[in-house]
């Protein structure tokens, strides 16, 4: 009787959550750093500018403007905000100078300051099990447009509407390219990490990552494996880790006792070997 009761209880507990391992809370501090460095490492805006200056066959050009070149791309200012239940809203503020020969034959220069906005939806990759960002609803907002042409309403309107047509196709791929960088970092989370030659630890997501007003919460379960391939079982009766109420906005990592125990078991093996070596 007691036996079957405990089986039922175990079943219930296992159903609520598998292997309590750890909780990772990513705050704005980490997300800002990740997106900023992705933007810098990918040199994406400069690449976009170079591409615009050398349009591929079939690529879009600005009508009425030949010899188009994009130069002096301003250092982007990136603003991120958490959107609960969705992911992150991303705004990249930048500017650039577009030069070319205008339809009247003169040299034309357009200084444009713009915001690229998009929603980065946080999903779980079905196959790899890692979190992934996908961008949605990219828009380019013109903050200011200045030209060296005479201040003429018709010309201003032409430039404005042309930019509105051309810029999204030019700038929105930048958002996707940055996310690709960030997603690659997520993917590394599930790569096995060696622990002192004795074995490896890797992380598996136990539920889709969740976005709150102040964090992205990643709920994971570690798989601790010995070099010979044997898995170290995590006890399933450990208490679930919980963050203290109203805790800081910065990133935090919470590891369960069961996880630490498993990881210690791995280190203990490694210590045994070292002690034996000494003899
Ligand atoms: C452009 O983005 C900046 C920074 O997020 C913001 O302060 C500004 O209001 C935005 N401008 C427009 C026109 O949306």
TrEMBL record:
Residues 1-18 form the signal peptide. GO terms for molecular function: lipid binding. The keyword Signal applies. Keywords: Secreted, Signal. Pfam families: LBP_BPI_CETP. It is found in: Secreted. Residues 24-181 form the Lipid-binding serum glycoprotein N-terminal domain. Belongs to the BPI/LBP/Plunc superfamily. BPI/LBP family. This is BPI fold containing family B, member 6. It comes from Mus musculus.
